[in-house]
C-alpha cells in the first residue's frame, strides 16, 4: 500500500495532457436486466483474491471464506486450472467451468505481491501484434503473455467439451488489465470472449483501445474517483477501451440501475476521468465494485 501511495503521488504531479485526445459525451443508462450480470461476474473476480482458489487442484469448487461470492459458491462450478507464483509477474487466477450459467470463466487476480506492483508500474509500450499501430502497457501484456499458452491449451480442451458455453474473461484492478488484453488476444484466436473488467487501469494506446472497442462484448467498470483507472496517465499515450460503465453510488451501497451510467469514448470526462488526477486518498473507491471486491486478499505485501 505504501508503495502504491508513492507511485500515485509521483504520477499525480505529472501534467494531464487531456486536450490531445478526442472526447465523447454520449451518455446512456443501462437496461435493468444487465445489473444482475454485472453483480454476478464481479464475484468471480473477487474469488481470485482467495488463496484457496488460485492454488486449487483440478475439480475444486471455488469459494470465498469472507462471504463475497455467494452466487459463485451456489453455482455448479469447478476450477479446471489455477495459476500463481510461477511467473515473473506472479500472474494469478483460475479457469473454471460454470455449468449453472453455461460459462467457461478465465479469472485474473488483482495486485497482491511485489511482483504484481512492479507489473502495475511497468509503463513502457510494447507491440502485442494484435493490430497495426497497436501498443499495450508492457507490464500488463507480459502478465498475460507468460500464462497465455497454458490458458489457451485449457480453453481448447474445455470448448471441445462444452460447445454451447460462453467464454467470460474477468478481473478486478490489475486482474482487469490482464483480462482486457487477454480477451482481446483470445478473440483474435477465434474465441468469442466476453470481458468484465472492474477498476481496470488504462492498458492501451489509442489504436489498440479502438481495436478492442470495435471487437465488442466489453464491460469496463469504474467507480466514482477511483485512482487506478486514471493510470497510466493520458499524457503517457494511454487511453481506455469503450464503453465505460460508471458507478456513482457510494462505497458499500446497494447499487441500482440508476447508479450506473454508460459512457462512450476512449476519453470521457463525464466519468471517472473527469474526477481529477489520481488521488491515493480516494483508494477506498477502488475496492467497492458492487461488492468489496478484494476482501479475500491477505494482509501485507509478500515478496513473491
Account of the 3D structure:
- The structure is a single chain.
- By secondary structure, the chain is α/β, with parallel strands linked by helices.
- It has a single domain, classed as Alpha/Beta hydrolase fold, catalytic domain (Rossmann fold).
- It has helices at about 1-10, 30-45, 50-55, 70-75, 115-120, 140-160, 175-190, 205-215, 285; strands at about 25-30, 75-85, 95-100, 105-110, 125, 135, 165-170, 195-200, 220-225, 245, 260-265, 290, 290.
- The strands form 3 sheets. The chain has a 9-stranded mixed β-sheet with strand order 1-11-10-9-8-7-4-3-2, sandwiched between helices. A two-stranded antiparallel ribbon has the order 5-6. Strands 12-13 form a two-stranded antiparallel ribbon.
- β12 and β13 (about 290) form a beta hairpin.
- The longest helix is centred in the middle third of the chain and has 24 residues, at about 140-160.
- It is globular.
The biggest beta sheet reads: 9 strands, mixed
The termini sit apart by 15 Å
- Supply Rg: 18 Å
Could you give the order of the helices and strands?
HEHHHEEEHEEHEHEHEEEHEE
Number of strands: 13
Please sum up the structure shown:
With 304 residues, the protein is an alpha/beta fold. 32% of the residues lie in helices and 19% in strands.
Record keyword descriptors for this entry:
single chain; 304 residues; alpha/beta; Rossmann fold; nine-stranded mixed β-sheet; two-stranded antiparallel sheet; 32% helix; 19% strand
Secondary structure layout:
Layout: H1 2-12, E1 27-29, H2 32-47, H3 51-54, H4 70-74, E2 77-83, E3 93-98, E4 103-108, H5 114-120, E5 125-126, E6 136-137, H6 138-161, E7 166-172, H7 174-188, E8 193-198, H8 206-215, E9 218-223, E10 244-247, E11 260-263, H9 284-287, E12 288-289, E13 291-292
Parallel strand pairs: 4-7, 7-8, 8-9, 9-10
Antiparallel strand pairs: 1-11, 2-3, 3-4, 5-6, 10-11, 12-13
Helix pairs in contact: 6-7
Amino acid at each position: 500500500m505504501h508503495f502504491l501511495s508513492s507511485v500515485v503521488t509521483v504520477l499525480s504531479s505529472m501534467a494531464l495532457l487531456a486536450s490531445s485526445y478526442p472526447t465523447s459525451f454520449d451518455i446512456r443508462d443501462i437496461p435493468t436486466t444487465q445489473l444482475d450480470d454485472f453483480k454476478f461476474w464481479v464475484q468471480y473476480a473477487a474469488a481470485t483474491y482467495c488463496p484457496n482458489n488460485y492454488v486449487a487442484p483440478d475439480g475444486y469448487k471455488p469459494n470465498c471464506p469472507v462471504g463475497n461470492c455467494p452466487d459463485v459458491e451456489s453455482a455448479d462450478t469447478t476450477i479446471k486450472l489455477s495459476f500463481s507464483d510461477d511467473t515473473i509477474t506472479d500472474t494469478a487466477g483460475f479457469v473454471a467451468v460454470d455449468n449453472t450459467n453455461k460459462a467457461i470463466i478465465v479469472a485474473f487476480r488483482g495486485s497482491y505481491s511485489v511482483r504484481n506492483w512492479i507489473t502495475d508500474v511497468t509503463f513502457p509500450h510494447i507491440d502485442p501484434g494484435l493490430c497495426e499501430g497497436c501498443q499495450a502497457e508492457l507490464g500488463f501484456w507480459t502478465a498475460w503473455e507468460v500464462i497465455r499458452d497454458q490458458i489457451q491449451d485449457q480453453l481448447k480442451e474445455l470448448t471441445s467439451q462444452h460447445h454451447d458455453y460462453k467464454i467470460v474473461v474477468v478481473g478486478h484492478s490489475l486482474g482487469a488489465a490482464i483480462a482486457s488484453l487477454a480477451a482481446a488476444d483470445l478473440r483474435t484466436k477465434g474465441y468469442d470472449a466476453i470481458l468484465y473488467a472492474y477498476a481496470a487501469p488504462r492498458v492501451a494506446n489509442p489504436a489498440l483501445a479502438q481495436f478492442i472497442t470495435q471487437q465488442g462484448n466489453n464491460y469496463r467498470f469504474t467507480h466514482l474517483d477511483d485512482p487506478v483507472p486514471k493510470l497510466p496517465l493520458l499524457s503517457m499515450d494511454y487511453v481506455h477501451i469503450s464503453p465505460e460503465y460508471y458507478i456513482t453510488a457510494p462505497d458499500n451501497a446497494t447499487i441500482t440501475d440508476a447508479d450506473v451510467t454508460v459512457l462512450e469514448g476512449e476519453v470521457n470526462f463525464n466519468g471517472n476521468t473527469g474526477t481529477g488526477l489520481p488521488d491515493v486518498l480516494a483508494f477506498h473507491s477502488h475496492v467497492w465494485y458492487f461488492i468489496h471486491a478484494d476482501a479475500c486478499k491477505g494482509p501485507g505485501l509478500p515478496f513473491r
